[in-house]
Amino acid sequence: MKAALVTEWGRVPAYTDVPTPQPHEGAQVATVEASALTNLTRALVSGKHYASKEIALPAIPGVDGVARLADGRRIYTGALGYSGMMAEQAVVDPRGAVEIPEHVDSVTAAALPNPGISAWTALSHAAAVKPGDHVLVLGATGVTGSMAVQLAGAMFGADTVVAAGRNPERLEWLRSAGAHDTIALGEQDLSARVAEMHARRPFDAVLDYLWGDPAAEVLTALAASHPAAHYHPTRFVQIGSMTGPTLTLDAAVLRSTGITLCGVGIGSVPHEVLGRARTEALPKLFDMAAAGQLELRTQPRALADVAEVWAGGEPSGTRVVLTP
Fold it and tell me: β-strands 14-17, 2-5: how paired?
């Protein structure tokens, strides 16, 4: 069969012939209909992700996607082992899969779970956002950040959602999709805007998809505008590191405020929360997308174009989805 294949860490996958995967106990071979090219998929086969050590090369990338079982059911699932989802066929376990409603197309169904489940997990578990909360999303113009902006109000009842990002067109769109205010990174003073907003009404949660200097600026601004005699808990949730893997932070920022830091990623979320994400959140996300209550821009591409798409990067706020 045809598949994308990575033979060296950090190399662009090749579209090539590979052996047809073989089923094992409890799993079966399914026909792949779509697999999203996510940041996680890229990172895992770069060799630099903390979970890369669990992958053996050569490997077919694609951590999840949409497949059709022999009985005709269409499911969202993760791939097992060597047989990733960027292939004509993959080994899947139907027991851990989510059946896709007929009113959701395969491209959308492949693109939605990664940002949707990530945003839902950050909002519900790590940030514990509740009705009436004041939320800042740092890196809001990306795929997952924009999903978090939409879900913060629509699903969790946040009273105010502030979106910070670089793409001015996406920021303008986010105002119609759930953001009550925006911060244009690179054009506006991030520290000053965050400090002013936090002094007026403290943020209850910050979802950070950038890390690096922007995150350090936000954390420092939260502390600078926080009266020393007043305690207000702010949950700072680290989810992505698009601007760098490290930051420098004065220790006093954490000692002088009610800021708590945590992250959302592989290994940081309890199994029961992940289970709820699949059984409770994902079906609702599919229904919201079908009803036009969530917007997710997708760019379908043929699997044969994987090398070109991989090397070319992803358009801002758009999820590339590969179809065999």
Answer: antiparallel
Residue 12: how many other CB atoms lie within 10 Å: 15
**Cα 254 off chain centre by:** 27
Q: Domain 115-263, CATH 3.40.50.720 — does that match?
A: yes
Query: Which helix (H) or strand (E) element contains residue 74?
Result: strand 74-78
pTM of the model: 0.90
pLDDT in tens, 136-169: 999 999 999 999 999 999 999 999 999 999 999 9
Domains in the chain: boundaries:
2-112+296-323, 115-263
Q: Round to whole Å and give the CA distance between 166 and 163.
A: 10
Write down the CATH number for the domain with range 2-112+296-323.
Answer: 3.90.180.10
Residues recorded for the chain: 324
Neighbours of 250 (CB within 10 A): 12
**Burial grade of 201 (CB within 10 A; 0-12, 13-18, 19 or more):** exposed
- Residue 140: CB atoms within 10 A of its CB come to 32
Rg (CA), the chain: 20
- In degrees and rounded to multiples of 5, residue 65 shows phi and psi of 170, -170
pLDDT in tens, 87-111: 999 999 888 789 999 999 999 999 9
CA–CA separation, 52 and 297 (whole Å): 28
- d(CA 211, CA 192) in angstroms, rounded, equals 18
Give pLDDT, residue 166.
94
Domain 115-263 in the same topology as domain 2-112+296-323: no
Determine the Cα–Cα distance for residues 160 and 133; give it in Å rounded to an integer.
7
Query: What are the beta bridge partners of residue 188?
Result: 185
Report phi then psi at 236, rounded to 5: -100, 115
**Spatial separation of the C-alpha atoms in residues 59 and 87, rounded to whole Å:** 11
Average pLDDT over residues 238-258: 93
φ, ψ of residue 296 in degrees (nearest 5):
-140, 115
